[in-house]
Amino acid sequence: MFIAKVIGNVWADRKHRELAGAKLLLVKAMEPGGGGLVGESTLALDGGFGAGPGDAVLVVDEGGSARKILGNPKCPVRTVVCGVLDKVQVHGKTVLSR
Fold first, then answer.
1. What does the H/E/C string look like for the chain?
2. How many separate domains does the chain show?
3. Whole-angstrom Cα distance, residue 25 to residue 80?
4. Contact in structure between 46 and 75 (CB atoms under 8 Å)
5. CATH number of the domain enclosing 83
6. What is the per-residue pLDDT across 21-66, written as a single tens digit (0 to 9) for each?
7. What distance lies between CA 40 and its chain's CA centroid?
8. Which one of 27, 35, 60, 63 is at 20 to 30 Å from 45 when CA atoms are compared?
9. Separation of CA 41 from chain center
């Protein structure tokens, strides 16, 4: 699980039937402590939280957990946005706030 920022939307002309109607997002991990973005961008499915570009989100990156969040054991997915963050505090200091 990691904290990321949604950096874009992804559109697909064709998707697996289990992903019909699913919202695809491009996310990038945030440095611990509220710094900048790190690593490579990752494709993630919105878990029904209405996340969009600019949002700080909590991302789960494990297939079994992702499918449980979606409530679909047949869904071919590994990475899912499982929450939109309002505020993050590290050692009592607010490092991210909406």
1. CEEEEEEEEECCCCCCHHHCCCCEEEEEEECCCCCCEEEEEEEEEECCCCCCCCCEEEEEECHHHHHHHHCCCCCCCCEEEEEECCEEEECCEEEEEC
2. 1
3. 9
4. no
5. 2.40.50.220
6. 889 999 999 987 767 899 999 999 998 889 999 999 999 999 999 9
7. 14
8. 35
9. 11
Residue 60 CA to residue 78 CA, distance in Å, equals 8
Count the neighbouring beta carbons within 10 Å of the beta carbon of residue 3.
19
The residues facing 59 across adjacent strands are 2, 81
Q: What range defines the domain where residue 35 resides?
A: 2-97
- Note the pLDDT of residue 34: 67
Which residue has tokens 């874009």?
8
- 79-88 confidence digits (pLDDT tens): 999 999 998 8
